[in-house]
Design a protein that fits this description.
By secondary structure, the chain is of the alpha/beta class. The chain has 18 helices and eight strands. It folds into two domains: about 270 residues, Alpha-Beta Complex (Spore Coat Polysaccharide Biosynthesis Protein SpsA, Chain A); about 140 residues, no CATH class. The longest helix is centred in the C-terminal third of the chain and has 23 residues.
Length: about 425
Amino acid sequence: MKYDTSLRQWIARRMEMIERADIVVGIPCYNNQDTIGHVVKMVSHGLYDHFKDYRSVIVISDGGSTDDTREIARDTNVRPWQEKLVSIYRGVAGKGSALRSIFEIAEHLDAKATMVVDSDLRSITGEWVKHLLDPVLNHQYDFVSPVYTRYKYDGTITNNVVYNITRALYGKRIRQPIGGDFAFSVKAARHYMEQDVWDTDIARFGIDIWMTTSAVVQSMSVCQAHLGTKIHDAKDPAAHLAPMFRQVVHTLFSLMENNEPFWRNVKGSQPTEIFGGNGDSEPEPVSVNLAALCRGFRHGYDQFGIFWEQIFSPESFEAIKSAYETPDEEFNLDISSWVSILYELAATFHKWEAHRYKLLEFATPLYNGRVASFINSTIDMDSRQAEAVVEEQAKAFEDRRGYLDELWTAAGGMTEDLNRKLGQS
């Protein structure tokens, strides 16, 4: 069912009573009873300590939690002169729909600045509120993206896919384009609200990359805020991130098509202004299962190798085959091959009108393989040293942007034989 609004009637009535606000802070959540109380408290303290003279509304936008998330959010006290709304959003299940409700509330209340933070944060402090909102309220920025100090194996989709392509295409070195914790102006909130995307993957996991990309493409003023160490409920990429990978990459590649007139003219990349603190401490380790990642890659080769050989260039497929034959502790799908594979995958996605979700399903084991390679290449590094490897990889994507341009415009598409096999799989 398609909804004209993500808000329930009683929330609309509450907004009529509140009338207006200077700041809206949104917290999308689903089954986060262990962390939601802490996040609400830190947001409230940050607003009180740094923006006491502003009218503030804290919005908890829930996806129908089956635990006590909403009850804990309701029972968590906020500081004086702050409003708190707790509600279940309407629409497609996903973070995007939760943020849609926050956009609606911010627009209705004509908020000068809106901030959103994830509900599983364990390291959030009141300073996060200051660092995210200050660039919008006091420096006229439209969009603020986070920078964190993260453990080297946290954020594997960002580190190995999204940062690379976003930087190479759109020319901004936005380190965490799907970081989850953002601030934006009323101009940005209104733009997001006006877009007809709420029945797509953007309403699920694709919302963060869509917000970041839209801000850049719409020539909004963009900066970053360093929030320090990020500790949250991190997920093992071998066990939990396949659906997120497919939805984020589907959105990423779809945005490439929609925004081709913009990125075709982009050459190189530029840093943005960074506000906030620093990240000197070593983050909390995140557990990863190298054997499971390699096993998932090899299982994918056994299942999809016949398709990979037709989709990728001979050089890329040879690199994939070589990795398949390498022991776990020496596993290596190198950076140069990964650049070619992702660019070839994006161009294939562009040329195919059907079976796009299957294409990304087939590609998921390759993501496992690149993460396994990153683990092996950084096993003896601390997170700061591993960050240099991430930057090296991003620079390789930027330097070889011309290869993507060639692939994107080259003739070709899905052969009849491959189309038949995909339909049968």
